[in-house]
Amino acid sequence: MSYFRVASLRVGYAGQDVIKTISLTFDKGRISTIIGPNGSGKSTLLKAAGRLLKPYSGAILLENSDIFAMEDRAVAKRLGILPQSPTAPMDLPVHCLVAYGRTPHHGFFNNFSKEDQEAVSWAIEATGLADKRFKRIGQLSGGERQRAWIAMALAQKPEILLLDEPTTYLDIHHQFEVLELLQGLNRDHNLTVIMVLHDLNLAASFSHRIIALKDGIMVADGDPERVLNTETISEVFNIRSKVLRISEDGISKTVAIPLGVRH
Amino acid sequence: MKTLLVDPEHKKRRLTALCGALLLVGGLVLSIAKGSVDIPLWDLVLVFVDPDINEGFYQVVMNIRLPRVLVGGLVGINLALSGAILQSVLKNPLADPGIIGISAGAGLAAMVVMILFPAYSALIPPAAFIGAICAALIIYFIAYDGGAHTLRLVLAGVALSAFLGAFMSTLTVLYSDRVQGTVNWMAGALIGKSWNHLYMVLPYSLIGLVGAIIGSRYLNILALGDDIARGLGLPVERVKFLLTLLAALLAASAVAAVGLLGFVGLIIPHITRLLIGSNNRFLIPFSAAFGAVTVIFADTIARTLFSPYELPVGIIMAFVGAPFFLYLLARGIK
What we know:
The complex is a heterodimer of chains A (263) and B (334). Chain A has ten helices and twelve strands. The model of chain A has no long low-confidence stretch (mean pLDDT 92). Chain A has 263 residues and is of the alpha/beta class. By secondary structure, chain B is mostly helical. In chain B, α2 crosses α3 (55-89).
């Protein structure tokens, strides 16, 4: 039985196809990253997988159950999604935002249980926000804000976390901070991560698997070493590049260096 | 790591609650004591102790001022809650039942019943509710485009209000013999409100208050954006629809009782938000309290400013509310 599956998905906006039939199977406890140029359908695919956008045809299956046929809250307990640049009231305290992540668990009429309380504390600790607990969203830096949102999604205790460009608007330090956090959660808690990233090298550094999209069609799919090559990069992004494998400080990485636009 | 376990905002909220309660009690007392006949505080106490001590004061308090003040308070609650809900659901700081045309819809429907079927005054609130919903639907279809754009919503509301207002004006001209105090009603006035009006509004206020307090949790989740709310398992469309119905019901019952009293739903949630923040679990009950306080004080001013003439309370609210609206616009709302 496959764990999480995108089955012959066709989806878009206002009757217009953005994703033109894609099938993918995700294994438990892996980090997969979707890359592709603007308008390639990355976010659309993620939204459909996160139950925010109803497919025209095909299905999203979580352990063989169609997530669009499941109860709202039943899905939300297992599947968390963070859209791109979410916004919250500026005066919202961090601990309140994180507590909202418990919504699918305690329902709307039951009060906060001990389990809820613990999940919130755990999420705040795990994201390193313990001393920012009572800070307002508006008082946080961009990186802290993103971590607060991830903490909310973690309090939800999902098995699968979908993130749309979790590093947008962050400087390079905060980009690594957020992605290392996700990597740690994946390693320590077997969290399945599916995300959209713009930066090829970040994608290669932090993912077990990269899926490349172009014009709503899957162009490449595999581990970073396989997907990151000059031919694929040229095909997907229409640029010339050089791909290097480096080993430094015991860290080996595949790095793509863009050389220029292909003419 | 147990440095801070209590949100430092607790104190501020408690203080605000205390001030609100004092203002509410003070407003009630002041409003009952002041008027064409001033009642000294001690005599006011005696009215409630023994009606026979001063028959005149007893009549004034029990039959004129008390119902009037209570109707004013309830209407303030309803309008403030309606505005607070609409501002959250439509994600629009200028949303107010008066501004976006919901009150005009309720007003026209109420007026039709009042003028054409005067025998069925019990039908005024339900008719107003239907009118309010129709107006809300029209606004929704005109102004909603993947999100209610602020100015578009306001402009659509202005146009719809003017259109429905034209019908109301026509009715008042054609049936001028049947209409008493239309000027007051169009502006929103508490003149001559009786216990019957109170009983008419009270059930709606209770339903609205309970609904809004339950709804405050949903409003908080909706404030995180539709996608986040859906991701947390909230049936977003259904919740928004129900909350809009609730806002329409609240506004409609207020309009049915006192007419087109504007700006309460705009000003109160904003000021309350400035005082205690945007968490709806506090914003909703505090808005209700401050809505009651505001209408009661405004009505006291309306009654006493040019005594023996009485202004409709809506005029006082417009004097305060319209500049406030302009201030919000000028502050750069896109």
